[in-house]
């Protein structure tokens, strides 16, 4: 098994109060868990890949959600608490799934990755749809339950069920 840690959308607009689509106070709980996962992955030599929402100013997604994560704005930047290291990879995306229209799949395959461990937000949107595409492409998926969150607690819980029961993701809790 060769695993990569995938950090989903830990950008200002979602993760910090005042951001365009702030997820809420649960962000304060998952940030230390993700820091812990980053330390673990880097120490183990596991590749770390950040997926970041990166929208055009008139992106079609803004028909459903208020404008957020516009390329070139602070809102689209990874929060400094979780800053990437030199060796990490950052992959911008315009859709929920980190695989759609991006280099994610070839980036993982070039590194011989067969297992993805997901942390970040939102559990029911970008985490869920990235996990779904990962499973379609044949990757094993692990989700750190206390390292993912959403602005919608019910949707978060339903997505955890969907990840486990329908997508066959391995659910785990990271030590703090
Ligand atoms: Zn978006």
Summarize the structure in words:
Helix content is 32%, strand content 21%. The chain has a six-stranded parallel beta sheet with strand order 3-2-1-4-5-6. The longest helix has 19 residues, at 26-44. The chain has a single domain (3-172), classed as Rossmann fold (3-Layer(aba) Sandwich), CATH 3.40.50. It has five helices and six strands. The chain has helices at 12-15, 26-44, 104-110, 123-136, 153-165, and strands spanning 3-8, 48-53, 89-93, 115-121, 140-149, 170-172. By secondary structure, the protein is an alpha/beta fold. The chain starts with a strand and ends with a strand. The mean pLDDT is 97. Bound molecules: zinc ion. The site of zinc ion has 5 residues, from loops.
Précis, in short:
The chain is an alpha/beta fold and 176 residues long. 32% of the residues lie in helices and 21% in strands. The structure holds zinc ion.
């Amino acid at each position: 098994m060769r695993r990569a840690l995938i950090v989903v959308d830990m950008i200002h607009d979602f993760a910090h109060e005042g951001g365009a689509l702030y997820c809420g106070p649960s962000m304060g709980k998952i940030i230390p868990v993700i820091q812990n996962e980053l330390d673990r992955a880097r120490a183990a030599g596991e590749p770390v890949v950040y997926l970041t929402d990166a929208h055009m100013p008139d992106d079609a997604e803004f028909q459903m959600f208020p404008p957020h994560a516009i390329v070139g704005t602070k809102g689209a930047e990874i929060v400094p608490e979780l800053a990437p290291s030199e060796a990490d990879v950052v992959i911008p995306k315009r859709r929920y799934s980190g695989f759609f229209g991006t280099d994610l799949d070839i980036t993982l395959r070039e590194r011989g990755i067969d297992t993805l461990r997901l942390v970040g937000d939102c559990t029911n949107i970008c985490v869920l749809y990235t996990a779904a595409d990962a499973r379609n492409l044949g990757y094993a998926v692990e989700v750190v339950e206390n390292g993912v969150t959403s602005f919608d607690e019910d949707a978060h819980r339903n997505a955890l069920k969907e990840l486990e029961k329908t997508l066959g993701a391995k659910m785990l809790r990271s030590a703090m």
